[in-house]
Amino acid sequence: MIFMIVYLFCVIAAVGLGVLAGWSDFRGMTIPNYIVVFVLAAFFIACGAAHLGGAEGVLPARTHLVGGILMLAATFVMYALKAIGGGDSKLAAAFSFWFGTQGLVVFLSYMVFAGGLLALAALYLKKKQPVASPAEGSWIARVQGGESVVPYGIPIALGAFAAFIKLGYFAPETLKLFLE
User: How far, in Å, CA of 70 to CA of 89, rounded?
Assistant: First the structure.
């Protein structure tokens, strides 16, 4: 029972950290490194709790490590090509450890969808400039000032949250594995 509680706490913490990352990215186009470290630490603690609690199938370590490393390599290339920022790269990779190779497509699909909606919002903000006096340095101020920027931390967090739900991280069937 204690391992299930630790696991759930870590999943909820990762979701909360995703919200914090999205908010930070929205306000100032930065994602602090401590958020990425805590998302990754929460994964390793949850993975350990699953294995110690006899629910290895919840977070099979090997496939999750491979998924995270693959995403880290992909986002590193994207960062090197200046397609995304360093914080975005690290955050996407940290969440990818949570989803592994089996859940990576689900996470990426939700993330891309949310990113597309945010990009459309950026185009609208840039063209119409509906916010009279946005906070200085915020994403809205930068877009309305003519920059073509998107705070990718928001779609990464939304994609992670949707993937946690879709992949059953909170599902009774998943939690039941800890009680067997």
Answer: 12
